[in-house]
Every structure is written in C-alpha cells, then in structure tokens.
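Recall from the previous chapter that SMILES is a line notation for molecules. Here it describes S-adenosylmethionine.
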Amino acid sequence: MTGANDIWKMGDAYESYMGRWSRPLARNFINWLAPRRGARWLDVGCGTGALTSAICELADPESVWACDPSERFIDHARKSIRDGRVAFAAAGAEDLPDGGGAMDYVVSGLVLNFLSNPDRAIAHMGQRLRRGGMIAAYVWDYADGMEFLRRFWDEAVALDSAASGHDEGRRFPLCQPEALRALFHGAGLRDVTVGVLENPTRFRHFQDFWTPFLRGTGPAPSYVASLSPERRNLLRDRLAGSLMVEADGSISLNARAWAVRGVLE
Ligand SMILES: C[S@@+](CC[C@H](N)C(=O)[O-])C[C@H]1O[C@@H](n2cnc3c(N)ncnc32)[C@H](O)[C@@H]1O
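With both inputs in hand, we obtain:
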C-alpha cells in the first residue's frame, strides 16, 4: 500500500539515495529481459530515468515513452536524457499516454509496490500493449535481500517499534516471487516468469551510507525526517555500530530485486 510518507519529489535527493543503485539494477533487468531491438517501449514510473536510460543504452529502442506522476522527477529525467527516441509525460499508471500506437514492451522499475491498486495498473499497462507484447517489472526484495534497507529498518524498529509500520518489508507483501507471479497471472498474461537480480551496493564509508537517508525522498528518508535530532542520532549510531566495515572503511552489502515478465495473449 502506498502512503503519504512515500515522498517522491527531489530528483537529486533520489539519485543519491536510490538512483545510484537503481541504475545498475535497471541495466541488470534489461539483460535479464533480453529484449528484441527496434521495439516501442513505455516506462511506467520512470522517476529520474534509470530504466529509460538503460533501455536506450542496451536495447536499441525505436521509441520510449517515459512517464511519472512527479513533475519534478520528469523534469530531472528530461534534463539528463538527451535522446531523440525518448518522449516524456507527467502521468501515472492510471492515466498512461497512448503513445501513438501499441507498445512492444511496457515496463516498470521499483514502482508496483507503491501503487494503490497494482491489479488495475497492470490492466492499464496491458491496454497500451500490442497482442504478443510484454509487460515486465521489478521490485526490491525489501523483506530480505535488499540489505541496506533491511539493516536500516531492523535497527529503526529495534529503537522504535512504531517504525515497523513504515518498514517496506512489512508494508509490501507484493515484493515476493509468488505474489508477483499471481499479479501477472491474474492479469491474464501468459509465459509468466519470475527472476532474481542481484546487485552489489558498496558504500565508501559510513557517511556515504547514512547521508542519503537525510534527504527526505523515499520511505526511509521520510521516516528519518520525522525523528527528533536526538532519535535520529541514536539511529545513526546504532547503524554505525552494527554494519560490518572493511579495512578501508567501506561497507559492502547486496541488493536483491525480483523481476517478473509476462506476455499479452
Ligand atoms: C522508487 S521510484 C522508481 C523510479 C525509477 N523507475 C527507478 O528505477 O529509479 C518510484 C517511482 O514511482 C512513481 N510513482 C508513484 N506513484 C505512481 C503511480 N501511480 N503511477 C506511476 N508511477 C508512480 C514515483 O513518482 C517514483 O518516481
């Protein structure tokens, strides 16, 4: 379920918090998808453009529609992606542009769990697809393998049991292989496949891990912004004491995501 604290506004803050990990993840996803070249794409919830960039870089598209309801994210993406094949629209999954014809691929990166009605969103996505086209998406494994968020919420909840209401691992049961498979089957898609995308997340030092949580964009930073300075420092110190630091001061974690794809009959 999406919530008022899922604040998606500031492109630069998003980039330092999540974009730096969602960009390699998007490339990983395109490699998993192994799409055909010269296709027409629609990217739903493009944010600052991680997946749109990966499509342009790796899939040689004919065209890409990049949509997001956040005007500021669209603005950020428009400024950073200078590619004549890409068109942008400030639109959510519920009001997707028709893009001037049926798409070959409708994709969505790290978005499905934030939608109030994912079933309806997948149905809308299907309406933009040609028959035989593909819907594909990925979400973080918040409950387990997305380690930097997992560590964050485990420590936050240990300090403040009320934080569990914000913990994405609890809030987003959709972010599990069987739930994703059921969502795609429920939409009548065939050849539904779920895959795993593993991504290293290496932080140069503790501040590199912690500072992006102070910038207010996304569920965990929004939770940090709600804390008093004393509680925030307590959480910071607890995390600093619990993370394994390498000899050079760096912190190496893994970030796992689940990917799902299906074909429209
Ligand atoms: C975690 S970000 C992912 C952004 C980008 N796809 C990436 O991989 O970096 C989640 C995105 O979902 C967008 N979003 C929120 N509600 C949405 C909706 N109803 N339809 C489409 N996108 C939505 C947000 O604006 C935000 O850009």
